[in-house]
Amino acid sequence: MTPASGPEDHDDPVEEVAANWLTLRSEGLSSSQRREFERWRQADPRHAAAVARLEAACDLLEKMPRVRADLQPVITFPAPVRPTDRNAGRPGRSWRNAAAAAAAVIITLVALRPWRPISPTSQSHATSAGGYERVVLGDGSVVELNASTEVRVVLAADERRVSLLSGEAHFTVKPDPGRVFVVEAAGVSVRAVGTAFNVLLGSGAVEVLVTEGKVAVVDRPAATTSPPPPAGSSPGESAQRGFSAFLEAHERARIPAPMVADAAPAKGTAVIEKVTPEAVRRALSWQERRLVFAETPLRDVATEFNRRNRIQILLGDDRIGTRPVGGAFAADNVEGFLRLLESSGRIALERRDENTVVLRAKD
Fold this sequence. Notes:
Elements: H1 13-27, H2 31-43, H3 45-63, H4 93-112, E1 121-126, E2 133-136, E3 142-145, E4 150-155, E5 159-172, E6 180-185, E7 188-192, E8 196-201, E9 205-212, E10 214-219, E11 238-240, E12 244-248, E13 251-256, E14 269-274, H5 277-283, E15 290-297, H6 298-308, E16 312-315, E17 324-330, H7 334-343, E18 347-353, E19 356-361
Parallel strand pairs: 5-6, 16-19
Antiparallel strand pairs: 1-4, 2-3, 3-5, 4-5, 5-8, 6-7, 7-10, 8-9, 9-13, 10-12, 11-14, 13-14, 15-17, 18-19
Helix pairs in contact: 1-3, 1-4, 2-3, 3-4
């Protein structure tokens, strides 16, 4: 027969009967009791729903010890009272206690979970020539902006998105599996959850350098035309525009980007390469306000100084653009760099105005 519920201070008599049945089942049901329990559960959808609610609540309660150590303040859980204890005359009390404790835990978890904005928030950040800025985003991620850089950041409940409009930025992403972190630059999309990487919107191309973890890089205009290669693809691997790939720490991708208007785009292949720790340090030397070059073409050196200084260096002679430059220079000491070039005896300086210097090869 159905377990008697009796007069109780419980608001739901169906749940009371369900709790009684589950308590009896935990102690062991006979064959006839199992059949009667099934008949009662199937007799009304409300009966089955009450059983499912109690089972789910107590299953959650059993799982809570694995996560409660991460919660502050500490949550304690009352032990369910068995029928043989002081409530032996009310066999459903153990399941009701467990369900009540689980409900309290759920409420506490909701109260303690990190706040997320219901509607997206948008911010813009920009640096001038020679500038630098370190920005801590609302989610705890850090963005470092190189000189002449502009970004727009949108934080939403399900996504974190940054548009790199110009320049170069390094991203240290706070892990949040529920909100992917996406950086877009000239049609190239870089996706990460918790990692660190650098994005440079350069002359006709986007460069992505991973310093920690792993990212997915997708050339959005034709991203569906080529599936991503396996993780850990071999160095030097290349593909036509529209490629997608996974990059790991100390890997760099250079993706032609026709949307970049400051120079003619590179030839139409995207290249992935391994880079040494020393090369990574050189690439990120701007964070230390230094420029470090090792056999770097003069045209690229001039570009780096130009992005950081009011004084602009122009190459008036194509022959000198490929000349290699090595050494470490203060990013804001463009005059010192120019004096060094002039003292070499191979390059002449022409000052057109106070902010423009033209370099030419000496005959």
